[in-house]
Write a structure and sequence with these properties.
This protein is an alpha+beta fold. It is about 40% helix and about 15% strand. The chain has five helices and five strands, in the order H-E-E-H-E-E-H-E-H-H. It has a five-stranded mixed beta sheet with strand order 3-4-2-1-5. It is globular and about 50 Å long.
């Protein structure tokens, strides 16, 4: 059982498994729990296969829930990209899975969360336009 993220040199490799409609989010062998927990948080389902013996690596991967439509799987995969990038991870998603509308929505959500003041402000907030943007 090979790990695609290990092969590609990325932190998260998002793709559709050949001959299926399953959207995978693979991480390198031994990926930090923080990364795995982020994928859980985004709605991916975690899968784990432990070796039969006492030695060998435990394989962990995430899949989009099977009950989602093809469009919903694309949206789930794409919405995960901006926060993963913001957390400093290297993410690879192919064009056939990328949903531009979902990406813009996810980046807008991040910007609005960053622009939300921690204390009440009596003047209109214009910081969302003035903030720096970061493209993938």
């Amino acid at each position: 059982m090979g790990n695609r993220a290990d092969d590609e040199g990325t932190d998260v490799e998002i793709f559709i498994r050949e001959l299926t409609d399953t959207v995978h989010a693979d991480t390198p062998t031994g990926a930090p729990e923080e990364l795995l927990a982020l994928l859980d948080q985004f709605g991916f389902e975690r899968n784990t296969v432990k070796p039969a013996g006492c030695s060998g690596p435990t394989y962990v991967w995430h899949e989009a829930p099977a009950h989602l439509s093809e469009a919903q799987k694309k949206q789930l995969a794409t919405r995960a990209v901006p926060p993963l990038l913001m957390a400093g991870y290297i993410v690879r998603i192919p064009d056939y899975l990328f949903d531009p509308v979902a990406y813009r929505s996810a980046t807008a959500r991040i910007r609005s969360q960053r622009a939300t003041p921690t204390a009440p402000v009596s003047t209109p907030d214009t910081s969302s336009r003035a903030g720096r943007s970061r493209r993938a």
